[in-house]
Amino acid sequence: MTCSPSSDCPKQSTMRMVGCGILHKEVDFLIVKNGWNIETQFLDSSLHNYFNRLYTELNEALGANEDNGAETVVFYGSCHPKMDGVLQQHHTLRTQGQNCIVMLLGYERFMAELSKGAYFLLEDWALTWEPMLTKAFGTNVAVVREIFHSSHSSIIAIRTPCSADFTAEAEAAARFVDLPLIWIDVTLDHLETVLDDAIQRKQRGDP
Q1: CATH assignment of 15-100+188-204?
Q2: Could you tell me which of 145, 148, 154 has the C-alpha nearest to residue 117?
Q3: pTM of the entire structure?
Q4: Nearest by Cα to 98 from 109, 88, 178, 90
Q5: Going by DSSP bridges, is the β-strand pair 154-159/15-20 parallel, antiparallel, or unpaired?
Q6: H or E element, residue 55
Q7: Which residue ranges make up each domain of the chain?
Q8: 37/10 Cα distance (integer angstroms)
Q9: pLDDT tens digits for range 27-60
């Protein structure tokens, strides 16, 4: 499976997928590939570092879509302790999986790598790595490294068929936290199944 630009994306939609922008290229590609009649609205992937902002921005996005009469499905994992409450409030549901990495790799592969101390790096995070971390944890590099070393032994950079070449950015990210860099290539098969399941559940009117 390879990604390429397409002009076949539906122009009208009866549903909107609201969620994290970390895999925006992959999600948009799969929507076009499958001809799903759904629009996307992506929020900043760095919101995971700010629970208050994540809650507020997701809640506001879903509320605005409700006001406009749009049905929604949410592309997030259990990324906020009040996620279920937000979904119930707006009468919607989310993609199944603990987080976006689980949705991409599958639970077994995710847990196998996590058990070895991996921190998973996607293209979107690599491109904004240093300013994202220093904004969240401060500018003392020693402190940032201590945070990462306390629970991680390596950085796993994930390439998908939609990834651009972010080799330099991934290498810089690994240097910044002083961890070895490992590359893995993944297909979009598992993510495709997760998205299809969420869309079908929403169309059936599942709770």
Answers
A1: 3.40.50.1860
A2: 154
A3: 0.89
A4: 109
A5: unpaired
A6: helix 51-67
A7: 15-100+188-204, 103-185
A8: 6
A9: 999 999 999 999 999 999 988 888 899 999 999 9
